[in-house]
């Protein structure tokens, strides 16, 4: 008999990590007031965080080096590429064609994709409790952003497809990190994955842009640094630790807190109006998270 309950500390780690990641959207909006491009802002975010990841990697080497094969490093590079670079890139492209409200709803199909990918490649069982929790959180997200959906305009299908690719790549990262983290350890895996992502972002900038990065107001660099620490460095480790503790499937359900926390943070820092419908949606999402975090019955 073994308990499969999710501890309160794991729940708190997951929530704090997701909320800190969500703060990125507020900082991006604040930075856009200074006419900075999205790619340049992404470069600042990753480059400012890079020295910390390099330092942490020096002190926290892989925990089980004997168990790590060369193919594991190949997988780590792949997941670093798709997790914090490619998923973001597809997201930026998709937002050219559809409204943010619709983007968020499409993006948060990733918990379902995590379950499906885990089922297909890792033979992980999908429980009834997980399916119910996903349904509850999806309903909450849709309600919260229902008023923002605008289907007018061209290239809606292309935009939706790009956002779906973003959700698919992020879901693949979550599944991959779920079985690689125990081999490398939380600190080493996260540092290596983020270093790979930084290299990809810088390469993207070098190939497609090469614009001047040194003529922005100091506020842009300050916001870039805050994004690097508050919405990249710290939450990346919290998310990896949460995945290690509760598994990629359960963590993906907690991801539905992301858009709700974005609403609240935008209300607090950007004076964006929080409607009654959004409050209702947020409450439903919280119900879904509480449902999955409640202790499961012991199984034999």
Low-confidence stretches: 295-300
State Rg. Answer: 19 Å
Number of helices: 12
Q: What portion of the residues fall into strands of 2 or more residues?
A: under 5%
Integer average pLDDT: 82
Helical fraction equals over 70%
Q: What's the number of extended β-strand segments?
A: 0
What is the string of helix and strand elements?
HHHHHHHHHHHH
Shape: globular
Protein structure class: mainly alpha
Number of domains: 1
As an assembly, this protein is single chain
Distance between the termini: 5 Å
Q: What profile does the largest beta sheet have? A: none
Write a structural description.
It is a multi-pass membrane protein. It is found in: Membrane. Pfam families: EamA (PF00892). This protein is mainly alpha-helical and about 300 residues long. It has one domain. It has helices spanning about 10-30, 40-60, 70-95, 100-105, 110-120, 130-145, 155-185, 185-210, 220-245, 250-255, 255-270, 275-295. The termini are close together. Residues about 295-300 have low confidence and may be disordered.
Highlighted features:
300 residues; mainly alpha; transmembrane; EamA_dom
Quick overview of this protein structure:
It is built from 12 helices and no strands. The protein has one domain (8-293).
């Amino acid at each position: 008999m073994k308990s499969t309950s999710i501890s309160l500390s794991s729940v708190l780690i997951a929530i704090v990590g997701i909320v800190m990641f969500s703060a990125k959207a507020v900082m991006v909006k604040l930075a856009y007031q200074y006419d900075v491009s999205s790619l340049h802002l992404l470069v600042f975010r990753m480059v400012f965080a890079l020295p910390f990841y390099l330092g942490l990697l020096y002190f926290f080497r892989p925990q089980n080096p004997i168990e790590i094969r060369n193919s594991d490093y190949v997988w780590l590079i792949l997941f670093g590429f798709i997790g914090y670079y490619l998923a973001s890139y597809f997201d930026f492209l998709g937002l050219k064609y559809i409204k943010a409200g619709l983007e968020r709803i499409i993006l948060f199909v990733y918990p379902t994709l995590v379950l499906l990918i885990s089922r297909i490649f890792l033979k992980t069982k999908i429980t009834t409790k997980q399916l119910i929790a996903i349904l509850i959180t999806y309903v909450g997200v849709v309600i919260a952003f229902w008023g923002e959906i605008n289907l007018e305009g061209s290239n809606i299908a292309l935009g939706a497809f790009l956002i779906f690719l973003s959700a698919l790549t992020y879901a693949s990262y979550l599944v991959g990190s779920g079985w690689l983290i125990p081999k490398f350890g939380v600190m080493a895996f996260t540092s290596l994955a983020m270093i790979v992502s930084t290299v990809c972002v810088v390469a993207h900038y070098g190939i497609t842009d090469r614009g001047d990065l040194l003529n922005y107001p100091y506020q842009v660099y300050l916001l870039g640094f805050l994004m690097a620490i508050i919405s990249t460095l710290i939450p990346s480790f919290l998310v990896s630790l949460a995945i290690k503790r509760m598994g990629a499937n359960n963590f993906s359900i907690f991801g539905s807190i992301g858009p709700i926390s974005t609403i609240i943070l935008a209300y607090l820092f950007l004076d964006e109006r929080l409607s009654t419908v959004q409050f209702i949606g947020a409450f439903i999402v919280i119900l879904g998270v509480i449902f999955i975090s409640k202790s499961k019955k012991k199984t034999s």
